[in-house]
């Protein structure tokens, strides 16, 4: 049951979010249905990172990084790369009393390589004080992408 009919006074935006016949609302979520008919959420479609032909959901990499005892929170975004199209960059909030270091970067990268996929490790890891979130606490990766694009030399 869905009652959302469209965006008020925005027919173009409404057309972007519905199937051509108007029957389906396109959420922007990416996922899959298994052979038993179960649905699995992967990520937001606009958050999927395409690196050297691989589709990588940031949530998968974030889930591995979050298991490290030094990591309090993490967010992963795609960064432009001439060779691969995009590469992964991670933003990491460290647990209290922990300091970021080159050794910790290497350890986190190795965790992703061994616990998820060798090609999907973050090429750069930024240690940050906090992550941008909505008032309800939802991570806003698009703000990290905007901040990265605004950095000098990007």
Keywords:
4 helices; two-stranded antiparallel ribbon; 154 residues; alpha+beta; three-stranded mixed beta sheet; GMP Synthetase, Chain A, domain 3
Helix content: 25-40%
Relevant CATH superfamily of the domain at 48-150: ANL, C-terminal domain
Topology as a string of helices (H) and strands (E): HEEEEHEEHEH
Assembly state of the chains shown: single chain
Strand order of the largest sheet: 5-6-7
**Average pLDDT, to the nearest integer?**
86
Distance between the termini: 45 Å
Approximate shape: globular
- What is the makeup of the main sheet? 3 strands, mixed
Short description:
By secondary structure, this protein is an alpha+beta fold. It contains 4 helices and 7 strands, in the order αββββαββαβα.
Tell me what you see in this structure.
By secondary structure, the chain is α+β, with helices and mostly antiparallel strands. The chain has a domain at 48-150: ANL, C-terminal domain (GMP Synthetase, Chain A, domain 3, 2-Layer Sandwich). The protein is 25% helix and 28% strand. The chain has 4 helices and 7 strands. It has helices at residues 11-17, 58-65, 102-115, 141-150; strands spanning 29-33, 39-44, 49-51, 54-56, 71-81, 85-94, 124-128. A 3-stranded mixed sheet has the order 5-6-7, with helices on both faces. Strands 1-2 form a two-stranded antiparallel sheet. A hairpin with a 3-residue loop joins strand 5 and strand 6 (85-94). The longest helix is centred in the last third of the chain and has 14 residues, at 102-115. The radius of gyration is 18 Å and the shape is globular. The model has no long low-confidence stretch (mean pLDDT 86).
């Amino acid at each position: 049951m869905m009652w959302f009919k469209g965006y008020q006074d925005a027919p173009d935006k409404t057309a972007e979010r519905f199937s051509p016949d108007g029957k389906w609302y396109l959420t922007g979520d990416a996922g899959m249905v298994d052979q038993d008919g179960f649905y699995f959420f992967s990520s937001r479609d606009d958050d999927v990172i395409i690196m050297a032909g691989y589709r990588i959901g940031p949530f998968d990499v974030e889930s591995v990084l979050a298991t490290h005892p030094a990591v309090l929170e993490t967010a992963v975004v795609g960064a432009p790369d001439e060779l691969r199209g995009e590469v992964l960059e991670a933003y990491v909030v460290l647990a209290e009393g922990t300091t970021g270091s080159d050794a910790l970067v290497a350890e986190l990268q190795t965790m992703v390589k061994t616990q998820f996929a060798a090609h999907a490790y973050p090429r750069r890891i930024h240690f940050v004080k906090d992550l941008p979130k909505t008032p309800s606490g939802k991570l806003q990766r698009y703000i990290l992408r905007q901040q990265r694009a605004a950095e000098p030399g990007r």
